[in-house]
Amino acid sequence: MYRFLLSRQWVILTLVGLVLIPVMIKLGFWQFHRHESRVAHNDLVARSLTAEPVPVTELTKPGRPVPGGDVWRQVTARGTFDTKDEVVVRQRTDKDGQRQGYYVLTPLVLDGGQTVLVNRGWIPPGDDLTKFPEVPAPPSGKVSVTGRLKADETDSSGIKNTKGLPPRQVMRINSQTQAQALGRPVLGGYVELTEPDPGTKGPQVVPEPDHDSIGPHMAYAVQWWLFAAFVPVGWAILVRRERRDRAEEAAKAARAAAAADGPDPEVARTAPAAE
């Protein structure tokens, strides 16, 4: 009754099922690892945001990328803002994610002579995107700032580095690029300003990153594993259904053949004659 499993159709169906099972299991583990990475990232961000601020020069040096474990760390810096070399970063959204505008990127010349880039926050785009916008001035003289240490934006950030932009406008926040433009060493990464908050008169401070959401990856992992478990169950259901259908067809064929052959002669001879 199971000889049909050797047919071309069932051999192909069985092979497809055998291939799908490990593929779905692997996809489930891929989503599970993404879930673990997201949880680890959230833990890192939470620890970094609540850690005691340290001087920025303790975590980064000129020409060096910011280590992954130090991203989002709270840092402090003291120096003087260099407004003549200030630039704006295009295509950035406000804290609600509704309006596009600019980030204001201002070099801060530290007391020791080194320079660090400071993202002072978001401003609206203005009327003419081909010109440098009107930017609220930072505090003059010596100033102490606190912010989150961020890594340089590179190709891996997904931000396209468009060329031919208007003067003093950039697409990425990158310390090495700005170091070339400034003609002096710049600490790796940049500081995302959190204090002092300029309030309504200055750029809109960039809000904290979301470190509570874990995303749908765990749910996707469970779904892939359920799909993998359903493949053999579905295959067994189809086999039983095929076997039942074939048995019913064989029974019908047998009854049809018996009816076509007429009554059994022995039965006809022994049957009582009609009165």
Automatic annotation (TrEMBL):
Keywords: Cell membrane, Membrane, Transmembrane, Transmembrane helix. Residues 246-275 are annotated as: Disordered. The keyword Transmembrane applies. Its main location: membrane. InterPro entries: Surf1/Shy1, Surf1/Surf4. The chain crosses the membrane at residues 12-32, 218-238. This is SURF1-like protein.
